[in-house]
Design a protein that fits this description.
This protein is mainly alpha-helical. The protein is about 70% helix and about 0% strand.
């Protein structure tokens, strides 16, 4: 089992769970049937979830590449 991937996935799940909790609390406190977040809040949440997803995907991709024997340093000097 890959500990780093599990930790990154758990952080992603925690971020989504906290977001849903915040939306539910906002709806209950304001007694509005529409789930709304402020524009800045939406941007921050999108950045956090997107960043965690990107880091998790990059890590898993690098692990698979390493497992297949590719180090990623197979450049031939830049000529296309």
């Amino acid at each position: 089992m890959d500990t780093v991937a599990v930790i990154l996935a758990a952080a992603l799940v925690l971020a989504v769970a906290l977001l849903m909790t915040a939306v539910i609390i906002a709806v209950v406190d304001n007694r509005q049937p529409v789930q709304t977040l402020g524009e800045n809040t939406t941007q921050v949440v999108t950045a956090i979830i997107g960043g965690l997803t990107g880091v998790l995907g990059a890590y898993v991709g690098a692990r698979i590449r390493r497992r297949n024997g590719n180090s990623g340093d197979d450049h031939d000097g830049g000529a296309g």
